[in-house]
Amino acid sequence: MSHPILEVEAASARDTAAGVALTGVVRVLGGRRVLDGVDVRVPFHGRLGIVGRSGVGKSTLLSLVAGLDEPDAGSVTVCGRASAPARLAQCALMPQRDCLLPWRTALDNACLALENSGVPRKEARRRAAPLFARLGLAGAELLRPAHLSSGMRQRVAFLRTLLAGKETLLLDEPFGALDAITRAELQEWLLAALAGEPRTILLVTHDVEEALLLCERVVVLADGRVALELDADLPREVSRRELVTSPAFLELRERALEAIG
Amino acid sequence: MRHLWPLALLTAAVGVWELVVRAAQVPDYLFPAPSAIASALGSDAGLLASATLVTLREVVLGYLLAVALALALAVALHFSDALRRALLPILVLSQTVPTVLLAPVLAILLGYGITPKLVVVAIVCFFPIVVNAVDGLRSTDAELVQMMRTLHGSRLAIFRRVEVPGALPAVFSGARIAATYAAVGAVFGEWAGSSAGLGFVMLQAQPALLTARIFAAVLILCVLALALYAAVSLAERLLVPWKLEVAHA
């Protein structure tokens, strides 16, 4: 009788402890309350989309989660740990610009986190190389970023983030600078990559469709608060075109756009 | 092809120089014609060659000394805000002291050997390298640093993998400027007291009114400076191959 209940409790405890939780987070920047009491929860290996107008504090939120910044009030925990160094140790950030190092080849860029944690370069390359083949980057290994298309660069940047071996990935407008066709391609690519390598994801984007396509839950930030939280409970097995034109999708999109204001 | 126009202009200027000196019958000891300088290069070849070797050694060693000291100081200034705030203004101030005046003092302090020449060359070359290297290290993209920090990047890893490679183009800008100063620095050093070198040859030739020989020495000094500049540019192309790619991308 009590056994299943215990199990549920254990699972939910694990979920909140291992995921990301923001409670009553306030962050004041330049006299403005950029975040003004934000509560957000992402379960372990859950995917949360964060949408809102530019300047609404989406990137600030990611910096707080990453441990690169501290809240003025409230708490941020990643995998149950609250201190900034502990959060930093748990999160990998993928900035909007690909931030690839122009002097490193694609493969060596992807190896960056491994080398930073003391893995010799040769061994790091050996570990990263199979991912290139698996994620459609075969042949690009030895090219420097200047010779890669913007879509390829973004893929390498994501691979670099993934290879940090962290449970929590913070994606800040990862496809914001791409054209619509490449962006759709990379969204599919990201879903496939995450199917093989599940992680806890916080995805910041100004594109509501992207958030609904890639994430299980979507929050809308407005005026420093969570204005709306949506369960993106959609039929994922249908094709992308069917999905984005389905009434359920359109309704969610409409509600999100309304909340963005 | 891109050297065609400057070369044509230079040839024309030398031609005009030759014609004017010949037409006005200016004596060689006052202002030698290019042909007189060329014949001095030939007749004094042995003297000039051994002097060139002496000066070349001073230029190269002094320059390397400057690069080593400048890079070490730049790294120290980069890591210590206090040191940078305290030392950088003094470094700028030190540049207002004319090196020509320092050279005799250094000769008194360090004697007539190669040491004072190396010090003069190093002093002349040091500043542009330090300033550019410090600027290069400090101009690192903050977003790259944040990205590194979330990728297990320690302070040292960020320095090695992001700041140093990112600063290389700036370091080479400074190093190229410094390369054009080195030969002049060596001559200042020799003028303050020496027994060999192109500067010494010039000092000896002046009272004897061997003006063509002085011009020949100056010409060799220009070639030395150009060669050092070319060597530094080549090193940059080898060490920073991605710079051109980024510029073209």
CATH superfamily of chain B: MetI-like
> Helix amount of chain B, in percent?
over 70%
Shape of chain A: globular
Report the portion of residues of chain B in β strands.
under 5%
| Number of separate domains of chain B | 1
* CATH topology name of chain B: MetI-like fold
Task: Give the topology, please.
The complex is a heterodimer of chains A (about 260) and B (about 250).
Chain A: H1 2-18, E1 20-29, E2 32-42, E3 47-51, H2 58-66, E4 73-78, H3 84-90, E5 91-94, H4 106-110, H5 112-116, H6 121-134, H7 150-162, E6 168-172, H8 180-196, E7 200-205, H9 208-214, E8 217-222, E9 225-231, H10 240-245, H11 247-260
Parallel strand pairs in A: 3-7, 3-8, 5-6, 6-7
Antiparallel strand pairs in A: 1-2, 1-4, 8-9
Chain B: H1 4-23, H2 34-43, H3 45-79, H4 81-94, H5 99-110, H6 115-138, H7 142-149, H8 155-191, H9 198-205, H10 211-239, H11 242-248
What does this entry look like structurally?
The complex is a heterodimer of chains A (261) and B (249). By secondary structure, chain A is an alpha/beta fold. Chain A has one domain: P-loop containing nucleotide triphosphate hydrolases (Rossmann fold), CATH 3.40.50.300. Chain A is 44% helix and 23% strand. In chain A, strand 1 and strand 2 form a beta hairpin. Chain A is globular and about 45 Å long. Chain B contains eleven helices and no strands. Chain B is mainly α and 249 residues long. At the A-B interface, strand 5 and helix 5 of A face helix 7, helix 8 and helix 11 of B.
